[in-house]
Amino acid sequence: MIHKQPILVWDVPTRIFHWLLVICFAGAWLTSESERLQMIHYAFGYSACALVLFRLVWGLMGTKYARFSQFIKGPREIISHFKGMLGSYQEASPGHNPAGGIVMLGLMAIILLIGLTGYWSVKEFLGDWMSEAHEVIASLALALVIIHIAAAALMSLLQKENLVRAMVTGKKQGLPEQAIRFPQYFIGLLLVLGWAYCFYAVLTGALPSLTQ
Ligand code: HEM
Ligand code: HEM
After folding, report:
1. CATH code for the part of the protein at 5-211
2. Tens digits of per-residue pLDDT, 110-131?
3. Which of 5, 32, 41, 89 is 20 to 30 A removed from 181 (C-alpha atoms)?
């Protein structure tokens, strides 16, 4: 039997995307109530949407486990994943599991929806109704994030592998031939620069059509 060893699964852009998204989401929540911090709220919110837009592209052309085709599965595979969780079960692939894949997509979609309702709130489209919708959808997203964090903790225990650390280091237990070959540092650097530019441009009001 070949022993599993730490192999590279998450490329650099996927990890940077994740942890910048965590910062943006937390930042947008912490600044949502204050009028004084309004521009910071917009900067976190819009730059979170920019991250998701990048991730949608990366889901089509990124490395193996970053691709949607690797983790968007049909209902049959999702059901067999849950059934498998009851026994002593090991995922066949070191990427996202089939149930997680759907939640990942849901989280990305809901961030875009928060951004859109935020934009329409600024434009006073449909008045108070739109800012109510923005707040309700943001609360739904928070609930989903809490479920997501709980699921990451639970799956870490079940699989006896720290999945949160894997999102930091990029490494998971697997067979050498399952590893991705290129960490994609350069694309990671471009992502950080693009995100920082977007944050700065919104913060300083350089994109007035988005913030006024
Ligand atoms: C401190 C809080 C968080 C922790 C510990 C955490 C942990 C994780 C882990 C372990 C994974 C990989 C799951 C796997 O192994 O299959 C993951 C993926 C993901 N998480 Fe989180 N997460 C956190 C917060 C968030 C937040 C706030 C969001 C969005 C608002 C988010 C969105 C996502 C998305 C979209 C993915 C998929 C990553 C990709 O394929 O690019 N997470 N998270
Ligand atoms: C991850 C992204 C975001 C999250 C989690 C979020 C969350 C929230 C929350 C919870 C509130 C309600 C604050 C209260 O209690 O009054 C709020 C208010 C607001 N947000 Fe966001 N937001 C995000 C992105 C955005 C974006 C991109 C914009 C666009 C400019 C925006 C514009 C606004 C505005 C204008 C309000 C005030 C609405 C009002 O008149 O009450 N937000 N946001």
Report:
1. 1.20.950.20
2. 999 999 999 999 999 999 999 9
3. 89
Segment 70-96, tens digit of pLDDT: 988 888 888 888 888 877 656 668 899
CA distance 80 to 112: 30
- Give the CA count within 13 Å in the CB-facing half-sphere of 30: 9
Ligand 2 pocket list (CB less than 6 A): 24-25, 28-29, 32-33, 41-42, 45-46, 48, 111, 114-115, 118-119, 121-122, 131, 134-135, 138
Determine contact, residues 195/50, Cβ cutoff 8 Å. Answer: yes
CA of 29 to the centre of ligand 1 (A): 17
Residue 21 tokens read as 């998204």
> What's at 139, amino acid-wise?
S
pTM confidence score: 0.94
Residue among 92, 111, 102 nearest 71 (CA) = 102
Which residue minimizes the CA distance to atom 27 of ligand 1? 22
**Does ligand 1 lie within 6 Å of residue 149's CB atom?**
yes
120 token code pair? 């329409």
The total of other beta-carbon atoms located within 10 Å of residue 97's CB is: 23
